[in-house]
Amino acid sequence: MLKKYACLFTLIGLITFTSCEKDFSLNGDYKRTPVIFGLLDQSDSIHMIRITRTFLGDGDNNLYAKIEDSSYFDQVDAKIIEFNNGDSTGRFWQLHDTLITNKETGTFYGPNQKMYTFFANDLNEDYEYKFEGIFDEGKYEANAETELISGVSYTGPWQVFYPDLNFANASSSTSNTYPVFRPTMSGGENISLRKAKLEINYMVIYNDGSTALKQIVWSKANEDNLNVQFAFPGEEFFQFIKNNIDTDANVANRRMINVTAVTIMIDENTKKYMDISQPTSSISQSKPQFTNVNSKDGALGLFSARHIIKKTLPLNTNSIKELCTGQYTGNLSFCSTLPVHNDELWYCP
Q1: 259-306, pLDDT tens digit by residue?
Q2: pTM of the full predicted structure?
Q3: Of 124, 148, 172, which one is at a domain's C-terminal end?
Q4: Helices 317-325 and 234-244 meet at what angle, rounded to 10?
Q5: Number of C-alpha atoms within 13 angstroms, CB side, residue 12?
Q6: 153 contact partners, CB below 8 Å, separation of at least 6
Q7: Residue 304: inside a domain, yes or no?
Q8: pLDDT tens profile 103-113
């Protein structure tokens, strides 16, 4: 049975179709090719795999791309199997079809899209996982294997000694100095590319008494040098807030909730797939093709690993004061809920 989930899913386009006007059919030698896309992450509990197929019609294939059934197999029997050093652990998960309802618009059908899912909150980062799929009662098949990204954790004094994030050292914004926040990590295997971001969460209280939870995201560029530490300078933190939140006469005040440090890591296969999928600058417009999905009759796509780690912390006292009164954000109506500021005009209980 299809279950409906609302979640954002942005997938890389795998095949470009063009129209062809001929007086004969192209379908004589055509054979369906499985197209698989899935990224396993042990930090998730819901895992989704996209299973589609290539198609070919006698008319404009851009029109066929808008029809859901053109991209689906009639029957799918797929599972994920767990291995430890090549030996099955005895655990496997049967994939079940699921409907996501807010796929971004594009060349292919939407906003509904069928995905295949399994639930597991205990994937072992030291094990390997294999996808096996049989389609249309055995007419087509595909398989792929991946290791997980392992051995990664946040580390350093920013977690141990400073339970609050510090973006402002001084208590007076007129003489403020701004420290640099570095979400350092330890360990890590099977990583080829990293990305870091801060999710800044706050609440807006409007003049009519209504409220809204808001988030702005400060992202850093992708980094393939694992020895480089991501850095979020304190002054740039307040400048980022200034540039991404507008003054609003309808706002009574804003209150900072917390900041979440997020690091996203992908493995070598995912990086290769992303690199090859970038637009080409070649005059011939030809590009190499990468897939780690196997089939006796050919298959396309990616079955690989991603890992996301997060740490959520509140801002410290000086940072909250700078947010409420500082040179960059003092006009954005932020107020403090910290008891240490209860004698200040910008305190809000």
Answers
A1: 999 999 999 999 998 888 776 555 444 556 789 999 988 899 999 999
A2: 0.80
A3: 148
A4: 40
A5: 21
A6: 185, 186, 187, 309
A7: no
A8: 555 544 556 78
